[in-house]
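Bug: token stream looks shifted between consecutive jobs. Job 1:
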Amino acid sequence: MSSNNMADPRRQNKILRYKPPSTDSNPTLEDPTPDYMNLLGMIFSMCGLMLKLKWCAWIAVYCSFISFANSRSSEDTKQMMSSFMLSISAVVMSYLQNPQPMSPPW
């Protein structure tokens, strides 16, 4: 085993463990995509709910998925889950229709 270690060209004292740069010292490293998608999802889901636009409701679901997929595990999930539930309710409410009263056959 020691003969194998002697043939190893790497220098043990030069090996450094990777430490990701902190976002506190450099705020440009933070990715704003989840926040923007969350905001867009809220706007589209409100349009889908208020105006009964199905395409707005589906775009809201899409934006919620993108926001969830791009978020970090350390972020608050309550806001993302509320945005996702709002977009799902916009889809459901846009497809619900008031039943028409039955007209007489004559």
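Job 2, same session, no restart:
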Amino acid sequence: MASFWRAATAALTETNQTDSNEVEFWSNPERTGWLTKQGEYIKTWRRRWFVLKQGKLFWFKDSTITRASKPRGVIPVATCLTVKGAEDVVGKQYAFELSTRNDTMYFIADSEKEKEDWINSIGRSIVQHSRSVTDSEIVDYDDSKR
């Protein structure tokens, strides 16, 4: 799980700092709201304010977000493969998971509706920003029959 957290928060390192700064997370986000997430090293559940915008899922300590706010972390959704309910895995109501090839991150929403709304929003963002199929991987089957 630690490798997922390091990869997920890589957008905040100096090599990707400009990429994170290019997203105006304080203005017109696709989705915002409180979610509870598990810490990377100390496995306690903490309530954080999440902002989904332009293919990135940011989280903050509080909900007052301004241009000067610094995210506590960010996940580029293009690295994610699935987002789905996870009550049975976590053992908590309204839980869902976000997974990459290597790891899975868990969240808890405040209601069933919030959970479904987050799953739908993140799922749409994954599809819009996915880099899982590159141009070189696309096979034109009609062309190969000639």
